[in-house]
Amino acid sequence: MIKGIARDGNHIAFAGATLQVTGAKLTAGESGAVAIRQHDIELSTQAPSSPQNAVKAIVTRQVYLGASRDYVVETADGTSLRHRHPDETAVSKGSEVWLYLPPDRCRALVR
């Protein structure tokens, strides 16, 4: 669950980024909530080519699970998000990462 301030009917400000969302229509200036499943979030150590739906975060925990790694990351506003990532590359605690939250997977919720 992500909380932020609506910019318009289908965009929300979150942790210094603007997320395009689907689902319920938001009201500009009001607080809103967005749901996204952890397996829909993409994690990268490289800055994205487009800032749309990209959020910078810091790895606060990383656990090796064999075929994957379980990460907890914290965004600039203090929100913690969990993400499971294939074990191709280990990103150590304290590292800066980028999260991509696909617009079609970000569902605005009615409060």
How is this structure best described in words?
It contains no helices and 11 strands. Helices cover 0% and strands 53% of the residues. The model has no long low-confidence stretch (mean pLDDT 93). The two termini are 13 Å apart. By secondary structure, it is mainly β.
Core attributes:
six-stranded mixed β-sheet; mainly beta; about 0% helix
In short:
By secondary structure, the chain is mainly beta. Helices cover 0% and strands 53% of the residues.
Mind describing the biggest β-sheet? 6 strands, mixed
Question: What's the total helix number?
Answer: 0
| Series of secondary-structure elements, N-terminal to C-terminal | EEEEEEEEEEE
Number of strands: 11
Residues in β-strands, percent: over 45%
How far is the first residue's CA from the last residue's CA? 13 Å
Q: Runs with pLDDT <50, length 5+?
A: none
Structural category: mainly beta
What sort of overall outline do the alpha carbons produce when their principal axes are compared?
elongated
Order of strands across the main sheet: 3-2-1-5-11-4
Rg, alpha carbons: 14 Å
Write the layout of secondary structure elements.
Elements: E1 2-8, E2 11-14, E3 17-20, E4 22-23, E5 31-35, E6 42-44, E7 54-64, E8 68-75, E9 80-86, E10 96-100, E11 107-109
Parallel strand pairs: 4-11
Antiparallel strand pairs: 1-2, 1-5, 2-3, 5-11, 6-10, 7-8, 7-10, 8-9
